[in-house]
Amino acid sequence: MVSDFSRARPMPLWNGYRLYAGDGSTVRLPPSASVKKYFGVESVTGQGTERSLARIFMVYSVMARFVHDSEIGVMPKGEKTMLTDSLERAPLGENAILLLDRGFGNICVAKELQNRGIDFCISILVTMSNFAKTVQTCLCPQTSLELPSLTALWEDRKPTHPMGWNHVSGLIMTS
Predict the structure, then answer these.
(1) What is the pLDDT of residues 19-51, one digit of tens each?
(2) Residue 151 confidence (pLDDT)
(3) Distance of alpha carbon 130 from alpha carbon 21, whole angstroms
(4) Which of 104, 137, 97, 119 is closest to 174 using CA atoms?
(5) Mapping DSSP to helix (H, G, I), strand (E, B) and coil, where does residue 115 land?
(6) Cα distance between residue 65 and residue 84, in whole Å
(7) What are phi and psi of 72, to 5 degrees?
């Protein structure tokens, strides 16, 4: 239904691209019997209250300001799997850039998006990602990513985080 909506109206563009942002999170659910039955119990408080958690994920159309696709699921299902499922349910189409946070900064996600022909930008902490370190130093023969398109757009920021992390502004892959 959402995909039909997005195709039926003109989409606002940024520099000729439709921008989408994807992200996942964890939410604490109400402690009802039906919730515990479906989602399970993740923890028990000191007072004996059973807590249930769920994984949520959505792809948001940034310029059009609407949710392109979303999902709520059980905890063992990760946000990377939810991203893949979302792309199956609601493809982004042509001239789209998918923006993702550092939770998606790994070779599997990059290869999946490259194989689908999706342009993307992933924010990555260099100090916490071997994938980022490898791409940054251009020692990626095993990744089969097209490095010229990556390295031209690789930009380091000065450490601005209180812990001194070197945060990379983005890794952009064009198909």
Answers:
(1) 999 999 999 999 899 999 999 999 999 999 999
(2) 37
(3) 23
(4) 119
(5) helix
(6) 22
(7) -125, 135
Positions of E strands within the chain? 18-29, 43-44, 50-61, 66-73, 96-100, 119-125, 155-156, 167-173
Q: What's the rounded Cα separation, in Å, for the pair 108 and 80?
A: 9
* In contact, 42 and 15? CB cutoff 8 Å: no
Q: How far apart are CA 57 and CA 22, in angstroms?
A: 7
Q: What are phi and psi of 42, to 5 degrees?
A: -90, -30
Grouping H, G, I as helix, E, B as strand and the rest as coil, residue 5 is helix
Is the pLDDT assigned to residue 2 strictly greater than 60?
no
Stretch among 9-23, 40-54, 65-79, 120-134 having the lowest mean pLDDT: 120-134
pTM: 0.74
Both tokens assigned to 34: 């039906």
Q: What Å distances lie between residue 11 and 65, 84, 100, CA to CA?
A: 10, 23, 20
Distance of CA 20 to the CA centre of its chain: 10
> Which residue intervals of 14-129 are DSSP H helices?
33-39, 79-89, 107-115
| For residue 155, pLDDT beyond 70 | no
